[in-house]
């Protein structure tokens, strides 16, 4: 049977509790048993790493009364740091924590469809709210000239338009060429659909499949990849894999940035 042994150490001989000091990076302390003196460069669960003036690193346990700070015995503890906010937005811009959305500008950015709008919102949404730019979607671009004329863009209400499959000689190219307002900018990417602007590697596929002419492109992609032919559900799965601008092709990135710059900074431009 284990007997209880009371602590008979007189109170005046018991060590006083050492003050707790956060092991913040750069704090210079000494480990008294080894005499190693250095600055904190890392503090993890149960250990602290010090670096001396020669660049040498040593790892020590975080024990009570385990270090000297300016000659005083202290207990190093892990710093209580708030959760870090992302340094950048999904578009790669510097994040502005707590920034309020700006009142919407008169200018707008038009995209072809709902999927285009959802992708732009996911990657550039933070930037657009700060700049006060609203993105709206059209149902195709066949009536683009009349839509631009109805919007009546001007110096204080510029209009940017993002078009799918804008390649020389295409129907979309001819439509874009017919927009002549100096306060409207029509740009586009070369892909048949906005789906293709998502990098295949981000979706875990080698490449986007080729779909024979005359077939519905989205349904053809779903069949080729073995996905259910519910294109709305397929798109939500694609969109979920987009985390930042790094998941998108540069041909789309440059065009969206160009439109944001045009609508917010102004300047005359024609179709391109």
From TrEMBL:
Sequence ranges assigned to domain DUF3097 in this UniProt record: 20-79, 108-264
Spans annotated as Disordered: 1-27
Pfam families, per database record: DUF3097_C, DUF3097_N
UniProt protein name: DUF3097 domain-containing protein
Origin species: Streptomyces caeni
């Amino acid at each position: 049977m284990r007997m209880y042994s009371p602590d008979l150490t007189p109170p005046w001989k018991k060590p006083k509790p050492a003050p707790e000091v956060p092991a913040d990076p750069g704090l210079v302390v000494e480990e008294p048993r080894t005499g190693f003196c250095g600055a904190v460069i890392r503090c993890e669960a149960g250990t602290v790493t010090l670096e001396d003036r020669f660049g040498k690193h040593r790892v020590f346990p975080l024990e009570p009364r385990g270090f000297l700070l300016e000659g005083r015995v202290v207990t190093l503890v892990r710093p209580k740091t708030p959760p870090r906010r992302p340094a950048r937005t999904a578009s790669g811009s510097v994040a502005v924590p707590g920034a309020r959305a700006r009142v919407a500008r008169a200018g707008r950015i038009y995209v072809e469809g709902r999927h285009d709008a959802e992708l732009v919102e996911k990657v550039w949404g933070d930037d657009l709210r700060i700049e006060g730019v609203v993105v709206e979607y059209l149902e195709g671009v066949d009536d683009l000239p009349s839509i631009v004329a109805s919007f009546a863009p001007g110096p204080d209400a510029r209009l940017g338009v993002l078009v799918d499959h804008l390649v020389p000689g295409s129907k979309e190219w001819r439509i874009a060429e017919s927009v002549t307002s100096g306060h409207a900018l029509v740009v586009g990417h070369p892909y048949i659909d906005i789906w293709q602007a998502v990098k295949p590697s981000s979706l875990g596929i080698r490449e986007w499949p080729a779909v024979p002419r005359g077939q519905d492109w989205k349904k053809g992609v779903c069949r080729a990849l073995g996905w259910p032919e519910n294109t709305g559900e397929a798109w939500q799965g694609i969109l979920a894999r987009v985390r930042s601008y790094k998941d998108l092709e540069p041909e789309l990135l440059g065009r969206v940035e160009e439109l944001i710059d045009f609508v917010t900074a102004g300047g005359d431009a024609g179709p391109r």
